[in-house]
Design brief:
Layout (H helix, E strand, L loop, with lengths): L9 E5 L14 E2 L2 E2 H11 L5 E5 L3 H7 L7 E4 L7 H10 L8 E6 L7 H12 L5 E6 L2 E2 L3 E4 H9 L6 H10 L3 E5 L12 H10 L1
Parallel strand pairs: 1-4, 1-6, 4-5, 7-10
Antiparallel strand pairs: 2-3, 6-9, 7-8, 7-9
Length: about 200
């Protein structure tokens, strides 16, 4: 049965300290609003209803500045210094108890791609035996990634210092990872510096 991507939860990772950026990435001004506000609004626009945001030490500022958090679920990673994988595990722990066919993972520094990207990842996951589907643009892989329920459960058992890319590499070796070609450069972006951020804003 084909999975409708809009029925799946999505975890946004926004717990990092943004050392290279110098300001929490989700609070960067994006045409008059915090970037996380834009991300959440875009996800609602394309049909998502279950959005989970993982925050870190800057959680109080996010709650003050971003009213859209009231329409989603936010979780505070108590030890964000452990790295992004600990935030993934924190987000997974916040999923509803009902059975899920999968869960999307989107880092805050990857701009929300078009609807077609999410749809292609969900269709491929439901039509194959893959445990993870990964988008690729012009030969470069990126985010969001879509994890099967089986893979999600496996990640919960990993140590907090694990890495998602390493775990995905193991899935590739087991022929359980699918690379999906998409026509959206956003999936390859990784906005880590103010220079990259300013270049992104100008293009948009």
């Amino acid at each position: 049965m084909t999975i409708d991507f809009r029925t799946l939860p999505i975890i946004i990772l926004a717990a990092g300290d943004s050392q290279r950026m110098g300001i929490p990435k989700g609070l960067l001004d994006y045409h008059g609003k915090p970037f996380l506000s834009y991300q959440i609004e875009r996800l609602f626009e394309i049909g998502f209803t279950d959005i989970i945001v993982v925050l870190g030490k800057d959680s109080p500022i996010y709650q003050e500045k971003i009213p859209q958090l009231k329409k989603s679920t936010f979780i505070v990673n108590p030890q964000p210094e452990r790295g992004p994988f600990s935030s993934i595990q924190s987000g997974i722990s916040g999923l509803r108890d009902t059975h899920q066919s999968g869960v999307f993972i989107l880092p805050i520094d990857v701009p929300c791609p078009r609807k077609e990207v999410w749809d292609k990842l969900a269709v491929e996951l439901s039509s194959s035996e893959a445990n993870v589907t990964i988008p690729e643009f012009n030969g470069k892989r990126g985010h969001p990634v879509l994890l099967s329920d089986e893979f999600r459960q496996h990640l919960q058992t990993c140590s907090s210092d694990s890495r998602l890319d390493f775990e995905i590499r193991k899935q590739k070796e087991l022929q359980k990872a699918k690379i999906i070609s998409v026509n959206d450069k956003n999936i390859t972006l990784n906005l880590n510096t103010l220079e990259e951020w300013e270049a992104f804003k100008v293009k948009k």
